[in-house]
Amino acid sequence: MAIDRDAVLKAAVTVLSRQPTAHLDEIARAAGISRASLHRIFPGREALIREVGLLGLRRYNSALDEAAIETGDTAAALRRLVELLVPDAALCAFLAGENQLFDDPELCELWEEQDARVRAFFLRGQQEGVFRIELPAGWLSEAFFDLLAGVGWAVQDGRLAPRDSAFALTELFLGGALRRNTP
Hints:
With 183 residues, the protein is mainly α. Helix content is 71%, strand content 0%.
């Protein structure tokens, strides 16, 4: 029987996003395979963590590309980005909570490239008068990602319905990030 590598990664995300110190036995059980089978796919915990991190960063980058955040209306681009990222919010929760990823230079470089794109997006929105200018673009990027990770945890724990998560994230974030015209 062939083991579906993507299904194993998905199970790992589900477990590791809530329990970063989970044992490989728990991950294998969640994937419906033995620990030996898990070791045939990933030679150890570090390899599994790295692969989940790469998956998260690839999906995040793909969403940035598909949302076309570098052009067009920034509020509309943010809404597109949220719609694309919310299905992978648990992956973002994993990325936010896994300290081991910061030890990998390749993952750090990929993360920095993506974060630079998001910071530039928020800066562009500030320059266009869409986002609040008194908040640093870097902070808006950080807050956005942390809210996305929070959606992942809230959906996983049943505190937020998956169908409501994109709306909840967008409205909470934009409600605090939109520039207000005061007389």
